[in-house]
Write a structure and sequence with these properties.
alpha/beta, 2-enoyl-CoA Hydratase, Chain A, domain 1, globular
Length: about 300
């Protein structure tokens, strides 16, 4: 089964779900969530499927929410903010991310290019991440206009490194992601697809019940650390960040000239769309901005 924005392929014991909006760097819009939910439910219901692989078409995994769409949505609220309604709408998207976490079947994210903002939520809610060496994984909305709703950064990399990333919005490259425990392995981009599929097939050699048992054990340990409570707080804080005076001003500027708003956000840091694509220390700069980068 395939939709306009998500391609679902089933081969043997592996289901591959591909975000298919490459012309917009797989930026997230409501249609993607709707089609992804349907494809994911089909994979869960298929007894032949043991492992689900998540990837993005084109050069990027996912550049996050389509900021143009999100800014227009805020502009349509006529300056009023209903926190509970906002939280309810946002929770609809978060439920897609956390479905990966709750899935009885292991989910492996195959990450190349940009994996930022909402795209990082998708990847970090998967069970395993395998990435390209020059992928860039980060949460630029931490600089303005957002908070990580799934709150997975702390649980993935720990206190010091989660603060290092969220207090700067800086991205890490694929090699650093492995060093920090954010990913299982990093590969040359032209070898990534083969490596990710090989890992899926290796996992699929185990019996389905054994896979479910092991995932449940590890996830329960994390949930005992308060994951659900922190995710609720993350959703509420994200709404506050978007509707604070600074967030509302960014939204207005993004609606008028998105590329300019993103440049203003990132130029002081020299990364994402504002610097050359070169590795500096443990962090990696990004490519040029487009209308949907990077939220």
């Amino acid at each position: 089964m395939s939709g306009a924005t998500v391609i679902a392929e089933f081969e043997g014991s592996v289901a591959t779900l591909t975000l298919n909006r490459p012309e917009r760097r797989n930026a997230l819009v409501p249609e993607i969530f709707e089609e992804f939910d349907a494809a994911f439910a089909t994979a869960i219901a298929d007894d032949a499927v043991k492992v689900i692989r998540l990837r993005g078409s084109g050069p990027d995994f996912c550049a996050g929410y389509d900021i143009g769409w999100a800014a227009e949505l805020m502009a349509g609220a006529a300056g009023t903010w209903d926190p509970i309604s906002d939280f309810g709408e946002l929770s609809r998207f978060v439920s897609t991310y956390t479905a990966l976490w709750r899935s009885p079947k292991p989910v492996i994210a195959q990450v190349q290019g940009a994996c930022v903002g909402g795209g990082s939520d998708l990847a970090l809610c998967a069970d395993l991440v395998i990435c390209a060496e020059d992928a860039r994984i980060g949460y630029p909305p931490a600089r303005v206009w957002g908070a990580p709703t799934t709150a997975m950064w702390f649980y993935r990399v720990g206190l010091e490194r989660a603060k290092r990333l969220l207090l700067t919005g800086d991205p890490v490259d694929g090699r650093t992601a492995v060093d920090w425990g954010l990913a299982s392995s990093a590969h040359a981009e032209d070898e990534l697809d083969e490596a990710a599929l090989a890992l899926c097939e290796r996992v699929a050699r185990l019996p389905s019940d054994q896979l479910r048992i092991s995932k449940l054990l590890v996830n329960t340990a994390v949930e005992q650390m308060g994951l659900g409570t922190v995710q609720t707080l993350g959703g509420l804080l994200d709404g506050i960040a978007r509707h604070s005076p600074v967030g509302a001003d960014f939204s207005r500027r993004a609606s008028a000239d998105l590329a300019a708003a993103l440049r203003e956000r990132d130029e002081p840091f020299g990364d994402y769309g504002s610097g050359p694509r070169t590795v500096t220390s443990a962090l990696i700069d990004g490519g040029r901005p487009t209308d949907e980068e990077e939220g």
